[in-house]
Design brief:
Strand content of chain A: 25-35%
Number of domains of chain A: 2
Structural class of chain A: alpha+beta
Distance between the termini of chain A: 48 Å
CATH architecture of the largest domain in chain A: 3-Layer(aba) Sandwich
Number of helices of chain A: 9
CATH topology of the largest domain in chain A: Aminopeptidase
Largest interface: A-B, 47 and 47 residues
Shape of chain A: elongated
Oligomer: homodimer
Chain lengths: 367, 367
């Protein structure tokens, strides 16, 4: 993975936000390699008198202490998924629009660039801000820098509202569905397939389950004013022993994405009710996150950035804040469908629009 | 696999048939290792003036040339599936019956022992007999010694009737079903399972196919007076990419065991008619074998051994003879359900009964 990269001696946060995006994209930060970028961020912000800078591993926190009535956390992760020939970045015209092409441009260094620039420049925001840039978001949840910080410095998470800069095409996405994975297992009795009637076919027993799944109409659940579309899908199926043996076991793995108004237990009950005659084992479950958009500060934010709030479907770190009772939304440049793609690329105007909207709100929000 | 075995300097075919069974079971002949047993058979029969002994690789043919009006092939394979701590053999009482326990006792050295003893002793049978003991039956069909012999010495297969000594519990089993394997493939479109509606779930598309399989009532088809029970079964299923991805492909492998009155093409058409909307690929097909029990010699044999003829379900080498137009049946000691089992074992009385029945027919059959 010896992608050639430009040396970055220092981070110039007075540059325009697109230039900052390119600069930080060209410093590879595949999960685990966030250190050099974290160093540069600490260096670039340490001179700012309005910020208290805290480093915890490769996570950097910078916060104002202006005794505002309300405090907002604004956070973004520094790491990316592995590079695949798409660093250094380059500019391209895509459909007549200036586009920055390369790993991290969408997920989520354009969002981080917006945050870094505003952190540096806004010495007098109308709310106190706790900026957080963290490591290890793109790997197993156990390594997540935000999760680690929450354990060692929980007081840093005290806030009235949180904004994560994950790509949303500069729209506001709130909360997220929960996710549940369940193994549905059928059992039978092996026999030579030449005498199939001696056995009991475990694969055939999947028929009613698949029928129910194929016919299942997922609900749309309104939570705090946002419509969460659920989904119940078979994601894996596996069964059989050999081409001449009646199978004695088959396993169908289901993934239920459930609205954040449901608890995990409720989600499990719903799946059990749908497959009462089957053996089910829950293998993985994560709570969803309520959007919390009934909070006045959240409503003000949505209004200020001029976007319609939408539900977020994938699980993101907003759920951590929701779990703490802090309303949280995603707001960042970039099309989420291009995240992790080899042709990851961001519209430069969208980065600028995000910067402008966030700046406007942070200088006008009334607490 | 260093199973201790008794040395066998020579094969005593004047011993009783149970002793011969034990002697040849205790010479391991996992497919590929038939040579030493083939050597002993050649040695034991070379002295018999009534036999012409031919060796082809590790297949031994011994035939009478008595100018009888009719000729019968009587064949058995020398190899076994791998030994699993069940050689040397031992005698046990099972439900009060003397039982020989160990690898090969059922599949099919008891049958071979009956054949060897009769080949040696019957110098004046009422039909000419071509005895065949062959290698590599328990492995891929390409290696089968009978198939090889048919290619290099087709004239040896000229006969009016054939008996294979595969285990049938001393009953006559005729013909066999054909077998067809088909891959049924569904295709969809990948998507993140958090947005399942963007994708198209290939596993869900298996539902109608599995439903039809589960509801399918296999036919029983009467061929030459025997009832062949068919079977259509899913034997393998595989699909999915990851726990959070809507699967874009799933494959269900079907095995259709079809009556010997159907051709492979007819069997394929039948499966296609059942799954008209699916993508099907035939991966494996073997013709069945008509029992040919309408032949007078076959009827005489069935009557002589005092058994009711039954259909054979698994594919056996009788199909090779059927394909040559030679009526063929299986007749041998041992419960076929114990073939390949780790507790493979044969009832000693059944071996003796088989010897007696075959001897009686071979000395009385009128041609």
């Amino acid at each position: 993975m010896a992608d050639p990269v430009r040396p970055a001696a220092a981070l110039d946060l007075s540059a325009d936000v697109v230039a900052i995006t390119q600069a930080i994209c060209d410093i590879p930060t595949v999960s685990g390699d966030e250190g050099p970028l974290a160093d540069l961020i600490v260096d670039a912000l340490s001179g700012a008198a309005h910020l208290e800078v805290i480093r915890e591993g490769d996570t950097v926190v910078a916060r104002t202490n202006l005794d505002r009535e309300r405090r907002v956390v604004i956070a973004g992760h520094l790491d990316t998924v592995p590079i695949n020939g798409n660093v250094p970045t380059r500019f391209e015209q895509v459909d007549g629009r200036r586009t920055l092409w390369g790993r991290g441009t969408v997920d989520m260094k354009a969002g981080v660039a917006v945050q870094l620039k505003l952190a540096h420049e806004l010495s007098d925001p109308s709310v106190d801000v706790t900026w957080m840039w963290y490591d290890h978001e793109e790997v197993a949840a156990d390594f997540n820098g935000l999760g680690r910080l929450l354990k060692v410095r929980p007081e840093l998470f005290e806030a009235d509202f949180a904004i994560l800069g994950e790509p949303t095409r500069a729209e506001v996405e709130g909360g997220c569905n929960g996710t549940l994975r369940v193994e549905l297992r059928t059992r039978g009795r092996r026999a030579h397939s030449a005498r199939s009637w001696v056995g009991e076919n475990a694969i055939h027993k999947l028929a009613p389950a698949l029928e129910r799944l194929a016919a299942y109409e997922a609900e749309t659940v309104t939570v705090d004013g946002l419509d969460y579309r659920e989904g119940l899908s078979a994601v894996l199926v596996q069964g059989g022993v050999a081409g001449n043996v009646i199978p004695d076991e088959a396993v169908l793995t289901l993934n239920y994405r459930f609205a954040p108004s449901r608890t995990i237990d409720e989600a499990v009950s719903k799946v059990r009710a749908l497959f009462p005659e089957y053996e089910l084992v829950v293998t993985d479950a994560s709570d969803g996150a309520r959007p919390g958009l009934d909070d006045p500060l959240a409503q003000q934010f949505v209004k200020a950035v001029g976007a319609e709030a939408k539900p977020k479907y994938g699980w993101t770190d907003v759920a951590r804040f929701s779990a703490l009772g802090v309303p949280a939304v995603n707001f960042g440049p970039g099309d989420p469908l291009l995240a992790h793609a080899d042709d990851e690329r961001v519209d430069c105007d969208e980065i600028v629009a995000c910067e402008r909207a966030l700046r406007s709100w942070l200088t006008s929000a009334t607490s």
